[in-house]
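Hi everyone,

Forwarding the result from last night's run.
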Amino acid sequence: MELIGVNIGGTTTTVVRGDERGNVYERAAFPTERERGEDALFAEIAAAVGALKRDQSVAVGVAVGGPCDAHRGVVISAPHLPFRDFPLAARLSAECGLPVRLHHDAAACALAEWRWGPDAGSAGLAYLTCGTGFGVGLVLDGKPRYGSSGHSPEIGHVRYRDDGPDIFEKPGCFEGFSSATALALLAKERDPSDLGRLLPKEIAERALRGDPLASEIVRENQHAVGAACALLADLLVLDVIVLGSLARYLGMAWIAGVQQAFAREALPANVAHCRIRGSIADVQDLSGLAAAIDAAP
């Protein structure tokens, strides 16, 4: 069964052609560039889907970062994207002539991990994006978790501390400490003339080289991510929590720090039962394919 998968990220949009076994045959990528507007971005996505579509292609899946109504296929108001109440699934289906299923990107990544990752088939799996934003996707008993409104669960907006970077007009929320973007936000607060001018990846690289302030910021980030994992594991009694972008940037040392913070914060039974690991290498490319399976006839 041949599928088309789309992942619309805050920085880059990717479109792949693959199948239900998680094989990727072709890939195209281009800058998202939210400032050009929703019609221009949609047109490039539709053109890329059209270029990869074959006669045997049966469905398209779209993973999109930010608030969406997955039931109606509408992107509501993604902060890093130009779409506002945009009926993306219906418009893309009309353009390419195939059924289209839209998922929140974290839910789509969770589905990809549940289908093709080392914990495939887990009863309770969470995926934390740890990227431009800090989103969570849940697959519980084989199904992505959405509310009756079609909205995905939200953890980035949850209050973590009384102070901190101002995200969502809510200083102290998890996203201000746990995302990759948070590294830069925290650096601007602590050292605006030096670290505060760097990109998150550059701050991470400085931490790996032993820079004291960069290392302190990364440790603060690790503790926040570990606390978020503990909250999810204690509430939902999960089997596995998968960590996204920061795990790829910073590797096993960062994951180990998250695991240690999780062990301090979560109930002992959940610490013993719940595995925390980094994502599979191509999870973002596979996220759109995982969504497409839900659209396949």
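The radius of gyration is 19 Å.

Cheers,
N.
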